[in-house]
Design a protein that fits this description.
alpha+beta, six-stranded mixed beta sheet, five-stranded antiparallel beta sheet, 10 helices, 26% helix, elongated
């Protein structure tokens, strides 16, 4: 990409940023580049460092180490009011004694913008958030979702380079949150301003964002598009935090042509794709929706396992079955009711089923090198049971 004179590649950039609160390292040597005009979410559990990162961009906190650039300019030490960013909080922070339009125009008034221009710009902002006709109302006359729109309009009317959103939908009920997710994405695409959104809600982050930064213990575990984050988590933490995941552990018995075979015990043999060393101990993740269940006890092969049903639940258009494998592992199978085997409707606790998955479903998450020497590793042979299953699958 060719940049125009004076232009910069990123609206926000962290270079080795560290922030401490006494002995606690809230953000630990984080590197982050936020592209112009993108919707980026910082996602993670409480205490992961996402809000501290946002507060450093806003100027409410200063980093102890590293460089923080906004629009290509060093922002360390620059007070909040001198940064071309604005923040939308979960609490709305509206002035209850002011009308909606006066709340929206407040920042413009502080900036010294003339009254006629304030009214014009505030009216445009209210139109953007679909609150035209509410300009003379007080905040107490509005619903929670409408108050959040006012707070959003008040931030956008200032035309910030970056808009920071600190769990802004947390106080809304589920229906309003889903409606506002759609609205936020629409508004962001319409105005083209960079949004940096903090949330612990994975559904929010995945549904709205261009990219998601999953944080844990002050570091970014993975930064990528939502699809990649969900389909190809790089770490066990990301796999556990994003969606549901079944975990199986075992030893790699074969590694040929980019494929591995894992003996997980109890007759469970996993065939998948990835670079796994023969003889190493691995942890594999499989999404519940990548698995299917077949009533009865057909012959077990690679990528299938005999199981006992523990419970069954109907989740609207899905059916979810919790089962116990022969190796003692408990896993969840989730199928669309429209495509699931109709016999599953009459499967109950204690019944036997065969759980299966294809060879693209297993995700290789952790790998521990074998303890034996390389010479011993060359002599490593899979268990007879694993070899039989692998041979059966190949034939």
């Amino acid at each position: 990409m060719t940049l125009a004179p004076g232009d910069v590649a990123f609206d926000v950039e962290f270079r080795g940023i560290t922030k401490r609160f006494g002995p606690l390292v809230a953000v630990n040597r984080v590197d982050l580049q936020v592209n112009k005009g993108e919707f980026l979410s910082l996602l993670g559990p409480s205490g992961c460092g996402k809000t501290t990162s946002l507060r450093m961009i806003a100027g409410f906190e200063q980093p102890d180490e590293g460089e923080l650039l906004i629009g290509g300019t060093d922002a360390v030490g620059v007070p909040p009011y001198r940064r071309n960013v604005n923040t939308v909080f979960q609490s709305y922070a509206l002035f209850p004694h002011m009308s909606v339009i006066d709340n929206v125009a407040y920042g413009l008034k502080q900036r010294g913008t003339g009254k006629a221009e304030r009214i014009r710009l505030s009216g445009e902002a209210l139109e953007l958030v679909q609150l035209t006709g509410r300009q003379d109302h007080r905040p107490s006359m509005l619903s929670g979702g409408q108050q959040q729109r006012v707070a959003l309009a008040r931030a956008l009317v200032m035309h910030p380079q970056v808009l920071l959103l600190d769990e802004p939908l947390g106080a809304l009920d589920l229906k309003l949150r889903k409606e506002m997710q759609v609205e936020l994405k629409r508004i962001q695409e319409q105005v083209g301003i960079t949004f940096i959104y903090v949330t612990h809600d994975q559904e929010e982050a995945l549904s709205m964002s261009d990219r998601v930064a999953v944080m844990s213990n002050g570091v970014i575990e993975q930064l990528d598009e939502p699809r990649v984050i969900y389909d190809n988590p790089r770490t066990t933490f990301v796999a556990e935090f994003i969606g549901d995941m079944n975990f199986l552990s075992g030893v790699v018995t074969e590694q040929v042509g980019g494929q591995f075979i894992v003996d997980a015990g109890g007759g469970v043999v996993i065939r998948g794709h990835g670079a796994a060393s023969r003889g190493s101990s691995v942890r594999v993740g499989i999404r519940p929706e990548r698995m299917t269940a077949l009533p009865g006890s057909p012959e077990q092969q690679a990528n299938s396992a005999k199981a006992t049903v523990l419970s069954k639940m109907y989740l609207g258009d899905q059916i979810q079955i919790s089962v116990s494998l022969a190796n003692g592992q408990r896993i969840i199978v989730r199928e669309q009711r429209a495509s699931a085997n109709p016999v599953l409707d009459v499967v109950y606790s204690g019944d036997e089923v065969l759980v299966s998955w294809d060879d693209k479903a297993p995700l290789l998450l952790e790998q521990t090198a074998p303890l034996q020497s390389s010479a011993e590793a060359e002599q490593y042979t899979p268990s007879e049971e694993a070899a039989v299953h692998a041979s059966t699958e190949e034939s």
